[in-house]
Amino acid sequence: MSSLSKIGKCLFALAALAFGVLLILHLISPAIPAGGEPFFVLSRFWAWIIGAILVATAAGMSIEKYAKSSALLLALVFLMRAVIVYVPEVIAAPRKPSPWGSMFELLGICGCALVVYGGPPAKWGRIVYCIELVGFAIQHFLYAQFVATLVPSWIPDHLFWAYFIGVALCASAVSILSGIYTRVAAGLLGLMFFSWVLILHLPRCFASPHSGPEWTSAFNALAMAGGAWVIAGSARAFKMYGKSGS
């Protein structure tokens, strides 16, 4: 595993741990803010179960013996939550953007987990990961005016960046799926997601430390950065595997 893949795997595991810790801490003390969608769980029973799984799989990914099984379990949990909770909401209200966004986030994390797992499932992980990229790109185009309001005030031309990011997400998806300049595209994609953590999400978290959704958004961007860097680090091996399997 390359150094970039190792860094990506660590970031992804850290994000998964954070999602679980947020769930559990809120269960222990309601004074601690709950995480935002799609990681907020209404049922206390399922919140304990999912929180424990997230913490356990995050720890498991740091142990070589349990890394693959932990990543696979994590992928299944997020895929099931997307299918059971958000697909019905999307069908019931297809013009409502929030269920789409939550479903894309869960699919993105699922894809990251499959990529971390490696082997043949990583191919499906890339596809699922790219579904999220294209989904969010479309939302950037459809709701560009809103996205522009999220750009920090010190950065000029907010609307330009809203559209630019949409184009960048689509271009990254094409590169990852086609295998053309995947290492470069995924590496830059991870850098973009990680920069959002630093310049967008963390300042918003510190400005509103009791806002669970802000922390959730930060950790989601961290997970996506980790997934992108795992893809970048394994691009050459994946390409060789694809040739040998064709």
pLDDT < 50 runs, ≥5 residues: 240-246
| Rg calculated over all Cα atoms | 17 Å
What structural class is derived from the secondary structure elements?
mainly alpha
Mean of all residue-level pLDDT scores: 91
Dominant shape: globular
How many domains comprise the coordinates?
1
Order of helices and strands: HHHHHHHHHH
Task: Report the end-to-end length measured between terminal Cα atoms.
Answer: 23 Å
Biggest sheet overview: none
Features of this protein?
246 residues; mainly alpha; 0% strand; disordered C terminus
Question: Could you characterize what this model shows?
Answer:
- With 246 residues, the chain is mainly alpha-helical.
- Helix content is 82%, strand content 0%.
- It has helices at residues 3-28, 44-60, 64-92, 97-117, 121-142, 144-150, 158-178, 182-207, 212-233, 235-245.
- The longest helix is centred in the first third of the chain and has 29 residues, at 64-92.
- The two termini are 23 Å apart.
